[in-house]
Every structure is written in structure tokens, then in C-alpha cells.
Amino acid sequence: MSYSPLIDQLITALRCLPGVGAKSAQRMAFQLLERDRQGGRLLAEALQQAMADVGHCAQCRNLTEQPLCGICASHSRDPQLLCVVESPADVVAIEQSGSFRGRYFVLQGHLSPLDGLGPDDIGIPQLLERLQESEVEELIIATNPTVEGEATAHYIVEQVRPMGLNVTRIAHGVPLGGELEYVDGSTLTHAFNGRKAL
Amino acid sequence: MSYSPLIDQLITALRCLPGVGAKSAQRMAFQLLERDRQGGRLLAEALQQAMADVGHCAQCRNLTEQPLCGICASHSRDPQLLCVVESPADVVAIEQSGSFRGRYFVLQGHLSPLDGLGPDDIGIPQLLERLQESEVEELIIATNPTVEGEATAHYIVEQVRPMGLNVTRIAHGVPLGGELEYVDGSTLTHAFNGRKAL
Ligand SMILES: [Zn+2]
Ligand SMILES: [Zn+2]
Question: Where do the TM regions start and end (chains A, B) (predicted)?
């Protein structure tokens, strides 16, 4: 073992980051210790604050440290359009494409019976309550085009059918089996424009 | 901007890590917030402690939070062998190879007049003092085979010549197990110039 205990602890802790193996964790630790202690201190503070204070938007379940996220709180979003996505990263991808002016509902996952994830775990009761209370006229389902995402979309369609809403699914310009957060903006725009009534 | 201020701050702070761009910083932040808050808290603590407490070994300049690093403090290392390297990462690589049982001196850089790095900045006076005080009999220079690393090696050789030490340089050439066709030209030139009679 060639590291002192604190360096060893830092390298181990860095490996909780996705895509960071032993070699890059060591590179990161040495880089901070040798050349960027201030960056390391700022990162420690940012992590501590975010882990402690970031929760979920009371209305859309997106990540935020406010009671309501910026999109739900904004008056410039179209209250008649609601887009259902699986994750906060999907919201970011859609926002960056500039193709949508409504609001979101973030499931924070998808139906996955094998993992014990049912409708309650992905906020379906909260979604239905929201649809009953609000002026939403079109529900756009933008779950991932994967088996689980499609099953989740199908389940939501069945649940909201009695409400007489206009329910749409974004077009499959998004490659099947792909994950929404990695799709480029113009493909997402295309997918929004090509959405079809379900 | 689709992130709340604390998430935005976290993503920005993560980008101080080498090799982490906007997209992977976002992925890391969401991964911690959605699935591994405990990992994020441990990382914050490990960073805070390491940035605050890790300094340099009084004897070899390697990174450590102790007055002396583990290698300098160990009684099982050969005190007659001293290996000069540029960085703590070099110490790790050599230790992992198991090829050296002596101790180290870590320059924390190399001579680089253009960057204003002279002998004092890379601890040369400390190295000479160490050689005078200790029982070192062989000084092995393992700076990188770059222009700066070679210049640094040459400078050290000149400085220690009057001491009558045995001074050596690790061999450079085609890596074992490597394929000749993938080795770069300057390594091949070096390997040819350094050829030995069999
Ligand atoms: Zn919200
Ligand atoms: Zn030491």
C-alpha cells in the first residue's frame, strides 16, 4: 500500500463516482492534492450542501432544494402541457433542446416488478392527483423507449384514460433501446414535433 | 438553466476533477443525488480531510499526513538505495511493480525554466542535504524520459558528482510485452541507441 490513510480514503471515496475506476480515482486525488486544493475544498462543500439540502419538488418530483423547482415555479411555462419523464437528466436534455414549453412530472424511475418498483414508487398516485387538480390538457409521455419505459407509458395511459385528457407519446426519433439523456437536441425536437395521440 | 443552484454548484465543482467534462459531471451529480447520498457525504468528508491535512513527508517530499511517509518510516527498506522520481504517482507505479526495496525522493515536478521552476522549486537542495547526511550508496534517477525529465536528471548528476556516489538511470526502451509496431519513434530511436551486446 503506497498511500497514506487519508489519501487511501480519498481514492476509495472517489470511486463512488460513476465511471471512476482505481486508476482515475488516484489521478483525481493526486491532481487535487498537488495542484488544486482550493478546487478540492469547494467540491467538498458543494457535495456536503447538495447531499444535505437537495430534495424533490413538491409538484413534479424533480431534484431541487426549493419547495418548488424553477420550472414549476415559473409563470412562463404553459400550464396545459405536462411531460412525464423518468429522470432529472431527461428534464435537462429536453430543456437543452428547447423543444418544450410546458411543465414536467419526474417519475424518478420506471415500473420494474423484478426490482419491486410499482406505481406507488414512481409517483403515479401523485401524477393522477396532479392531473385532476390542474388545467393540464395534454399529457406527453416521454419515458425511455425501453421495455420498462414502454410498460410504464402503457400503464400511465390506462390510468389516465378515464380523465378524457389528450395523451401523447413522443415520436420514436429517439433510438430504441437508447437512453433519453444521451440523445442530441435536434433528435429530441424531432421527437416532440412528431408526437402522436395514443 | 435546468439545475437548481446547489446542483449547478455541485456540477461546476465536479469539473475540477481531471477528465470530467460537463456531461460526466452532470451524470456524477445525479447519480449521487438519486442513488448514493451516503457515498456523496463520505466523499465530501474525505476531500475535506485530505485537502486540510495531507502535506509532504519531511524526508522525501511525498504526500502524507504524517511527518514521515510510510516508506521513509519503514525499517524494512534498504537505506543504501534512493530513487528520485518526479511525482507521487511514480512512487505508486514503482511500488506496484515490486521492483524496488529502497526509499524515494519526490521532486514534485521537474526543472522547467519556462514555467519558472528552478532547482529550489523541485527540492534539489533538500536532496543534496539528504545525500550528505544519509548512508545512501546508489542514487537511481527515475525522472520521466521527456526533455524536461532528462534535463532534470542531467542537472542532478552534475550536482551529486562530487559526492562520489554510484548514480544510475533506469533503462528506457521498448516496453516488455509491447509490440514494436505500436511503439513511438522516439522510444525506438532511444532503444536503438541504447542497444547492448549480447
Ligand atoms: Zn417541479
Ligand atoms: Zn517519505
Answer: none
